[in-house]
Amino acid sequence: MRHTKLLNEFSLQKKKREFLNKILKSRKEVEVGGSGTQGYRLKSGKSKGKVIRHIVKKSENI
User: Fold this and answer.
1) Do the domain assignments include residue 21?
2) Does residue 61 fall inside a structural domain?
3) 38: alpha, beta or left, given left = phi > 0 and alpha = psi -120 to 50?
4) Domain containing 42: what range?
């Protein structure tokens, strides 16, 4: 009886961890750097194939 609270907390934490792992594994990754660009290429819609938001780093040494 005296370990009931501890065991319940442990099982609850384990369920939460398993749920978060399932969510993280089911996410779809965004393809950046594919097809020679450092932007994101739209995959659907009327602008399909268009590259948006290029990653540009400006030099401050010039």
Assistant:
1) yes
2) no
3) alpha
4) 4-52
